[in-house]
Amino acid sequence: MSIDLSKRQRRFLAYSIPVLAVFAALVFGALMLILLGADPIEGYSEMFLGAFGSGDALIATILKATPLLFVGIGIVIAFRANVINIGAEGQLVLGGLFATMAALYLPEMPAIVMIPLVLIAGTIGGAIWGWIPGVLKAYYSVNEILSTIMLNIVAVQLMAYLLRGPLIDPAEIERGTRIPQTARLAESADLPLLFGSDRFHIGPLLAVLCAIGAYYLLWRTPLGFRLRAVGLSEHAARYAGIPVRRTITLALTMSGALAGLGGAVLVFGGESHRMVTDGSTLGFTGGAGFNGIVAALLGGLHPLWTIPASFLFGGLIVGGQALQRAVQVPSALIVALNGLVVIFVVAADRYRATLLAEDGRDMVADADDEGGGEASAASSGVEPAPRGTDSFRPTGTYDTGDDR
Amino acid sequence: MLEMKGITKRFPGVIANYRVDFDVYPGEVHTLLGENGAGKSTLMKVLYGLYPADEGTVLVDGAEVVLESPNDAIEHGIGMVHQHFMLVPTLTVAENVSLGLKSSRGFLTDLAAVSQKIDELSSQYGLDIDPSAYIWQLSVGERQRVEIIKALYRDARILILDEPTAVLTPQEVDQLFVTLRKLTDDGRGLIFISHKLHEVLALSTRITVLRLGEVTGQIPVEGATRESLATMMVGRSVKLKPDKLPSEPGEVELDISDLTVMGDRGLVAIDNLSLEVRRGEILGIAGVSGNGQRELAETIAGLRKAESGSITVGGVDVTGAHPKTVRKAGLAYVPEERMREGAIAGFNVWENLLLIDHGSKDFLRRGLFDFGAITDYAQGLVEAFDVRTPSIDTPCGSLSGGNIQKVIMARELSSSPTVLVASQPTRGVDIGAAEYIHRRLIDKRNVLTDAEFIQAKLIEHRNACTAILMISEDLDEVFGLADRIAVLYEGRIMDIVDPDTATREQVGLLMAGVEPETN
C-alpha cells in the first residue's frame, strides 16, 4: 500500500469499511434506479422512512432483523472456530419444525412453562442440524460448506413433507385448499408482547441477550477460548491438548442451535402463529439464513457489532419494500440491491483484513522499540506467502499431510 | 554475471538472511551450502523474485535489476529448478514448457514448434525427454529434467538448482551432473544448493557457506575439504557453556520400549526404539534432522499413533492416549515448529500462556475468566522468563522468535512437569545474534542471549528433578547440556554416549550411521 496511514487512521478506516461498502452498494443501486427511470433521491428517502421513519417502521425493521441476528451470532461463533456455516436456512427450518411439533403435541400448559419449552425444542432442532455437519467435518473431514448446503435442501424437503402431510392444518384438508401450513398453534406458546404493541414480541430482546451471551462465551470463558484457539491454529491447539474435533463439532452445533432458536421465534412471534411455507425455505425464513451471514460479516464477525449490523440489514429489507411501492420499480430491484450489499460487504472484508494485518506489522516495530534490543531474533516460524507465484502450480506430490 | 549485495530478508520475528553477498560468474557452479533453515532457500527466492528483499541489491551483468516476480527474474535470464516440481501432471512435457509463454500463433498453441525446440535442447544437453509424454508418466528424475528444460527454454543463463539431488537415486545424480557440466561449458552460471558435502565437492567451482542467515565463508573448491566445510556449516559458537552440576539421575520417568512409528509418507520413521529418561537428567538426542526426531517427539506427546511398543510417563502408560491425557500424566512439550505448533500467532501473550491451563479454577470466577488472576499469573511468567513484550496483550505473532520461545517455555515449565520433551529448543532463536550482540555491547543490558537463557532454564529444571528429553541438531547444545547423548539414525538409537568422554567426531560418525566399534 502506497498511502502511509497512522495506526489509528488505519484502524478507523478498517472499522468503517463495512459501512462504506453498504454506501457504495447504495450508489450502485441509485444508478439502477436512474436506469429504470425512477428518482433515486425520492426512492432512498422513502426507503429510509419505510425502515426507520416511524414507530411502526422501526418495529417492522427490528422484527425483520431478529432472525438475522440469531443466525448472525451463530455464524460468528462458527467462524471464530474457523468453520463456515452456510446451513442456517436449514437450521432455522428445523428449529421451526421442532418448536411447532412441541407446541402441537405437548399437552396444554401455562405460558410460563410452554414458551421456554417450545423455544428449547427449536434450539434442539437447529442444534441437531448443526451437529450433523459438525461431526462430518471433525471426524470425517467432510467440507462443512458443502454439507451444510446439502442439509438446507434436505430441510426444505422435510418441511414440505411435514407441512403438507402429518402436520397440516386439518381445516386445510376439509376446505380442500391444502395450503402447506399448520393449525393455529397453542396460544400459551405465543411470545409475550412488549410495550403494548400488537406485534413487538420478546424475540428481539432474546436475540440481543444471545449476542451478549456469545460475546461473554467467546472472550470470557474457557470454552470460547478453545473455540478461538482452534479457529486460529488447529495445529497449536492440538499440540496444547485441546480436543480439536469436539470443539469443531460444538462450534457448528452451537451455531445451529442459535439459528434453531431463531426459527422458533419466527414461528411463535409470527403474526399467524403457525408455521407456513410456500414450498421453499424462503417461504418460511425470508432468506434470513443467508442474510444473517451478511449481517455477521457486516458486523465484523463480532457478536456485539452484529446487533447494529442486523438492524441495518433488516432496515434495508423493510425499507426496500417501501422503496418499491413508492417509485414503482420491479421487486427484483430490491433483491438486486440486497445482493449488491452482500457483494460489496464480502469483497470489502478482505480489504479490511489487510488493513488490520498491517496494524499487526506495526506492532512488530513497537515491540522492538519497547522491548529493547530484540530487533533480530528469529524462529523457524511463519513465512508470509511469496509475493508472486510461479507460472506453474505445484503438483502437490510432496504434500506432507499429518496422519493424526 | 550475477551479483547479490548485502541481502537482508526479515520475516515477522525472524531474520532469514542478514547482509548476504553472493555472486556467480559465467561457466561456474557456485554452491550455496548450509543446514536446513540456514537461509539458502530464502536467498534464492529473493533472487527469483518470490520474496522482496528488505535490504540489498541484485545486479545482473553489472546493472542493478528489480526482481518483483518470477517473470522479472526470467526476463533477466534467471531460471530456477524448484525442490518441489512446479509441473502439471495431467499435461504433456511440451504443454508444461509452453505454459505461461506467448505462442507464436496468438491464441492457438504452438506445440509442434515447442516440441521441436525441446528435442533440440534435450539432445544438446543429454536430457533424453520426449516432449509428448505426460508428466504423470515420468519418473522423478525425468520430471526434474523437464524443469531444467523449462528454464533453458526461457533462455536462462543463470540456473538455480534447489537441492536437486535430494529426490534422485545415485545413478540419476551422476546423469544430472553430466548435464550440469554441459550447461557450464556453455557459459551458463549455476547456483547449486545442497547440504551433501561429497556432491558439493564433486560439482562446485566455488562454495559459499550460510549459517543462521549469514555468510560464514566463501572458498574455491580446491581449498575445501569435508571437514573445513562442516566446520563452517555447523560453526563453533562462542556461547557460554552453561554451568552444570553433575546429574543425579533418579527413577525412570519416561520409558519408551520397542516403539515403532510410521512417518507421514507411510515409511517407518521410528524403528523398534527403546529409551529411558530418568528424573534429574537431560537425555540429548543428536542426529541429522529427518531421522525420526519429529515422529519420536510427536508420538510421546500423543500427536501421532504408534504402530507398536509402549510409552509411559511418570509410570502411567500413555501409549495412544490423547495429548490432553499425556499432559495430565505430567508431560510438557516444546514442539519443533514454534509458530505452527507451539504458539498461536493471533493469540496474545497471556492467551498463549494459558493455552493449556485455561480451564483451571485458579483463573475462573463464576465460570468466567478472572482477568485479575490471569494478569498476575501472566505478568509473573513474563518476568520470570524475561519475555520482552510491550504488554501481555500483545499478539505473539509480533514478538521475536526468541521471545515466542520463552513464552512457550514459560507455559510448559509452569506446570512443573515430570517429563519435558523439548524439540530444537533454541534453533533459530539467536539468528542475527551478531546484530543483537552489538546492541548488548552498547547498552550493557542483559547478560544472556535468548538461547542461553532457554538453556539455563532447561538446566534449572533438570536440577529440580524434571526428566528432560532434548532433541537438538545443534551439537554444541547437545554437548553443553545433555548428561547422556543418544544418537538417532534412521529411527534407531545408534549408541548412547557420555558427553564428557565422547568426542564430536565420534558422535558425528554415529550421526552418519557408522556403527560403533565393539569394545
Strand order of the largest sheet of chain B: 6-7-8-3-9-10
The interface involving the most residues is between: A-B, 58 and 99 residues
Specify the number of helices of chain A: 15
Oligomerization status of the protein chains: heterodimer
The helicity of chain B comes to 25-40%
The structural domain count of chain B equals 2
Distance separating the two termini of chain A: 40 Å
CATH topology of the domain at 69-313 in chain A: ABC transporter involved in vitamin B12 uptake, BtuC
* CATH C-level label of the domain at 69-313 in chain A: Mainly Alpha
Largest sheet of chain A: none
| pLDDT averaged residue by residue of chain B | 83
The proportion of strand residues of chain A reads under 5%
Helix content of chain A: 55-70%
In percent, how much strand structure appears in the residues of chain B?
A: 25-35%
Could you list the spans of chain A in which at least 5 consecutive residues all have pLDDT below 50?
359-404
Brief overview:
The complex is a heterodimer of chains A (404) and B (519). By secondary structure, chain A is an all-alpha fold. Chain A has helices at residues 7-35, 40-52, 55-80, 88-105, 111-140, 144-164, 170-175, 203-220, 222-232, 234-239, 244-269, 281-285, 288-298, 306-327, 332-371.
Overview of this protein structure:
The complex is a heterodimer of chains A (404) and B (519). Chain A has helices at 7-35, 40-52, 55-80, 88-105, 111-140, 144-164, 170-175, 203-220, 222-232, 234-239, 244-269, 281-285, 288-298, 306-327, 332-371. Chain A has 404 residues and is mostly helical. In chain A, helix 2 (40-52) crosses helix 14, helix 4 crosses helix 11 and helix 5 packs antiparallel against helix 6. Chain B is α/β, with parallel strands linked by helices and 519 residues long. Chain B folds into two domains: 2-234, Rossmann fold (3-Layer(aba) Sandwich), CATH 3.40.50; 252-511, P-loop containing nucleotide triphosphate hydrolases (Rossmann fold), CATH 3.40.50. Residues 431-446 of chain B have low confidence and may be disordered. The chains are: A mainly alpha (404), B alpha/beta (519). Chains A and B meet through helix 8, helix 9, helix 10 and helix 15 of A and strand 2, helix 10, helix 11, strand 18 and helix 14 of B.
